[in-house]
Amino acid sequence: MRPILIGILASFFFAFTFVLNASMEVSGGSWIWSASLRYIFMIPFLLCIVIARRNLKSLFLEMRKKPGTWMLWSFVGFGLFYAPLCFAAAYSPGWLIAGTWQITIVSGILLSSLFFETIDTKNGPIQVRGKIPFKGLLMSMIILLGILLMQFEHAEKLTINSFLLGFIPVLVASFAYPLGNRKMMEVCEGRLDAYQRVLGMTLASLPLWFFLSVYGLFTVGPPSTGQGFQSLIVAICSGVVATVLFFKATDLVRGNMQKLAAVEATQSMEVLFALVGEIIVLSIALPTTLSWLGIFTVIIGIILHSYVSNQKQDLKEQSSMGV
């Protein structure tokens, strides 16, 4: 249950991304700076944390072993995740992006067969290729049903152009984030903690953010003070706090595809948190009865997802003990 609670807390801080990106877009800020400034601002905070924990040297030693691998999966996990999300904010409202982002719940489950998980046997733990947890997939479909109910009334007001430019980038991001995260967990094999892994992936993805920054200077000019300040808040709340919490939660269930999928499903709470945030910050209208029905469906789906995950794990433990 602890990884689930940590995942929900992470989703609260992740919601700052959708609310503030929408706010920056409304005020005329470019998606280029929303994306690049977040990761550039994250580095000083993460460096201070890792140095204070005396873990910087071990991180650099780990990165030196496979620099190309770090750059590749950091580009996928951070670059192909956040740049498309910020790009989509220029064409779709925050609530739709947050809702579409929940496809990552299903994406994470479908990616399970690409990885190995640890199974306890009488002869000791062995590595087997992961299988798609169909019960978890069913629970995820309940969550997605809730998302559709929440977004149904709003979707009728969107143009095809806004939908596609807001949907396709988020679809790419929904696969890139769990793929990059899981690949880096596989590479690190538990040798690094969540703070080290986030800092390492941020540093490895810097070439992309510097490239975007230079491109932004020549195309849209420097960011405004307001966008810089909001990007700083996103960097702290979503980039540092939320990402570390989420990585911590996934580290706790590393090697168990069922529980990993359950932790990733907690991110559906971002829709609820983003909705509340937009009501407070952007003064959007209160949800209708249909939207509230969707919210409760999402919550029920998360509870069922957690129950199925823990039930399956309990059966495995009983089996390994000969119960």
In short:
It contains 14 helices and two strands. With 323 residues, it is mostly helical.
Short key terms for the protein model shown above:
2 strands; mainly alpha; globular; two-stranded antiparallel ribbon; disordered C terminus
What's the layout of helices and strands?
Blueprint (H helix, E strand, L loop, with lengths): L1 H25 L4 H22 L3 H10 L1 H22 L5 H8 L1 H8 L5 E6 L2 E6 L4 H22 L4 H29 L5 H11 L1 H14 L5 H28 L4 H9 L3 H13 L7 H32 L3
Antiparallel strand pairs: 1-2
Helix pairs in contact: 1-5, 1-11, 1-12, 1-13, 2-4, 2-9, 2-10, 2-11, 4-8, 4-9, 5-7, 5-8, 5-13, 6-7, 6-8, 6-12, 7-14, 9-11, 12-14
Structure description:
This protein is mainly alpha-helical and 323 residues long. The protein contains 14 helices and two strands. The protein has helices spanning 2-26, 31-52, 56-65, 67-88, 94-101, 103-110, 134-155, 160-188, 194-204, 206-219, 225-252, 257-265, 269-281, 289-320; strands spanning 116-121, 124-129. Helix 2 runs antiparallel to helix 10 (206-219). The two termini are 23 Å apart. The model is unreliable at 314-323 (pLDDT under 50).
